């Protein structure tokens, strides 16, 4: 099990420091977030911030929770992701999703996709273009909403064959989960309830993904299907023992990441996030000595 922390609140300087402290205290990943206009929040461009984080840290995985590719130009994302991948020495991961329409970058401007179907089609187009762009070869593509002709992106990513992609998926939706199974991980959400997924849910999800990827390997033998991450977000219960027990049960069910995601502005101040970072992630297994 690996552990990540989302830098939800704070200035640019506070966020950079938070990432450095998270790295120093044993966290495996640090994530910013991708928003345009989400209420009265200080909001930073994720790619600019990730560039700063890439050169301010040495080991920790970096990404954003999550990139709504439906409102981003995929050819620009290709260039941005290549740049951060190289700046970080191959530590970028790309969590992606449809995007939330309560962001003014969707709902309060003209011309953006707002229905779930439109956003899903644009997401699939973007992922197809990114995969081709990261190959370093000249490519063309005609999708639902994007057509490109004879593009080439160099250099190739540090990570081969591509920057890892983690789509958000609704469990147990076969269509949504089917998209994630084609890539490198999944950020699962419950389709049937607003509650967190249980260890039994994760166990069933892992079994489903394993079967689906076995089928994909037979159907598309040329497709790269490497290790697959199951990334669970939430807020750990208070208390060292309770937190360790919580993530241990998820790890036993097949989850590979816990990402601490704190979104309560009345509680999760920059100072509180710094305290969480310095506390470090839960320790699994028997106590030393």
TrEMBL record:
It holds the Pfam family Bac_luciferase. The lineage of its organism: Bacteria, Bacillati, Actinomycetota, Actinomycetes, Micrococcales. Coiled coil: none annotated. InterPro entries: Luciferase-like_dom, Luciferase-like_sf, SsuD_RutA_monooxygenase. The keyword Oxidoreductase applies. GO terms for molecular function: alkanesulfonate monooxygenase activity. This is Luciferase-like domain-containing protein. Residues 267-289 are annotated as: Disordered. Residues 7-204 form the Luciferase-like domain. Keywords: Flavoprotein, FMN, Monooxygenase, Oxidoreductase. GO terms for biological process: alkanesulfonate catabolic process. It comes from Cellulomonas aerilata. It comes from the Bacteria.
């Amino acid at each position: 099990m690996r552990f990540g922390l989302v830098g939800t609140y704070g200035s640019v300087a506070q966020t950079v420091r938070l990432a450095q402290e998270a790295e120093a205290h044993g966290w495996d990943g640090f994530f910013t977030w991708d928003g345009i206009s989400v209420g009265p929040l200080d909001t930073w461009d994720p790619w600019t911030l990730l560039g700063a984080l890439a050169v301010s840290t040495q080991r920790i995985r970096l990404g954003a929770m999550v990139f709504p590719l439906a409102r981003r130009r995929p050819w620009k994302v290709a260039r941005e992701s290549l740049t951060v991948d190289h700046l970080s020495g191959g530590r970028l991961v790309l969590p992606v999703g449809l995007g939330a329409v309560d962001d003014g970058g969707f709902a309060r401007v003209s011309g953006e996709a707002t229905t779930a179907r439109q956003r899903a089609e644009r997401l699939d187009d973007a992922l197809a273009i990114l995969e081709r762009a990261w190959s370093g070869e000249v490519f063309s593509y005609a999708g639902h909403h994007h057509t490109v002709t004879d593009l080439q992106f160099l250099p190739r990513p540090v990570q081969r064959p591509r920057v890892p992609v983690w789509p958000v998926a609704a469990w147990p939706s076969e269509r949504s989960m089917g998209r994630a199974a084609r890539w490198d991980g999944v950020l699962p959400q419950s389709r049937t309830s607003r509650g967190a997924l249980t260890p039994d849910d994760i166990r069933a999800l892992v079994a489903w993904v394993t079967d689906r990827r076995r089928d994909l390997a037979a159907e598309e033998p040329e497709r790269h299907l490497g290790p697959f991450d199951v990334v669970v977000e939430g807020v750990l219960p208070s208390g060292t023992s309770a937190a360790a027990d919580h993530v241990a049960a998820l790890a036993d069910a097949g989850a590979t990441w816990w990402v601490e995601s704190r979104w309560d502005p009345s509680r999760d101040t920059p100072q509180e996030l710094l305290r969480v970072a310095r506390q470090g992630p839960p320790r699994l297994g028997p106590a030393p000595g």
